[in-house]
Amino acid sequence: MNFTRWSARLPGTQRRAAARDDHSSVPAARAESVRPKATAAPPDDTSETPAPAAGPALEGLPARELLGLLPAPVALLHGPEHRITYVNAAYTSAFGPRPSGAPAAEAMPELAELSLLPLMDQVLRSGTPRTVKSRKVLAGSSYTVTCTPVATGAPEDPDGEAGVLVYATDVTDHAEAAERLRASERRHRETAVTLQRSLLPQDLEQPDDLRIAATYQPGGTDAAVGGDWYDVITLGAGRTALVIGDVMGRGVRAAAVMGQLRTAVRAYARLDLPPHEVLQLLDVLAAEIDASQIATCAYAVHDPNEGHLVYASAGHLPILVCDEDGTVHRAEDPTGPPLGTGGTGGTGGWVHTSGTIPLPPGSTAVLYTDGLVERRSEDIDEGVAALERALSGAKGTPQVVCDRLIRSLGVTAEHDDDVAVLVVQHPARTGTSAELFHNASLDLLGGIEAAPRARAFATGVLASWRFPVELCDLGVLAASELVANSLQHGTPPMRLGLRRTDRRLIIEVTDGDDHLPRRRRAEPADEAGRGISIVATIASSWGSRRTPGGGKAVWCEFALPA
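RE: above sequence
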């Protein structure tokens, strides 16, 4: 094989039309430079500067010596079987000597490890160079390899046998550095995912009147973990708070901010404030936690006596409610700005407001984050519309509905954003199940006859619900104390409400005064001030809250025997 002829046919090499008289080569071992012959001096009467002599022609440099000097492994193969024509010293040093004329599939196992044999077939067929990056051999080294088509025939035989020049660059150090970086990113992501999951509720609270399930799915391995969260908080007296939120950040910091906001929401919820007041407090806190990371949040409260959700939203996507017949309603206004952007300097300049959306028996509500519906290729309203269509046909338990919505919206393990979904069902009870849920109420007109009327009403209702005698006596005593407290400290209108579920008895008294009672220790000589203490002692729990439009409600609960 004439390597001078090969060098002339490598891509980018120009051939001279004139025949070469001198076939001398540059001695590679001595690395000598070729000096141009001296030329005659120009005549005295000319001002032109002689042009510098041209260097040695590339055609004059033999390919064997050129390829042999390269520090990277190089192999030359020819024919459809890729028979070995030449390997340079760097190739031999990296992979060992290779017999000339042997097929590459038999004598060059490293090419199979690098998956180059099919690639060389493509190069021969197409005549186009191909490059593969950072391929690893069994020995542990990584190479970036370029396969270039070359012609092996003589100039007078253009249809001669074709070949492939294989040029490999050792990128082991780069590959190891990239792998260390990927490992570091995996550890960072695993830490964020672990933190995220540990901050989410491990077991959702299950209210008596609702059935709830939630799903959280972190983004794919190429996506940093976000700050999506959800929560379910029982407020007492059968009321339940539902929360969904999203911190607009990535990584451990976003998860940490999410944890602080979720803890704050639970604390504010215990105050039993209206939804818009909870978000008002959260807005100020979010700006204090980290002004550079804003968050969206939707906070809703379900009261089984009202049959709807009272909600407020801080820049979050609308709550969806699907009726039993498949009709989907979207909670629209009111929606305020995201948390942390409502005011300057923690003043909370934006005033959030609350709205309502019906949640009748048999309906299903869905709270979700933008990862479920947002796609780069379409408007987010289209994603919400797609979710409405999926929800209208989703039947089954809350967990089944969660899974179906995730699948219907095309969320996979490689999704590029976090997804949180909270599904709330208000079941329609019939038959024996319905017998375990009852409501009864009595309007109190005030006056000295209100207390005995309330005791008589409570006695009759609790007896009709077939409670044990001991529970009936405790319930009548609690109702009597709550009514007496309202008569003494409240104003009309007053109302006594009794409610039973499959797990508890709830007694609640409302009046027109908005001063909330507090438990205090009465002195032995005091004739009053023991009512709330008595209720707190005999009941499983008690509490109070302000009601919309003014006034308050004071309640207590008794756990039913299993």
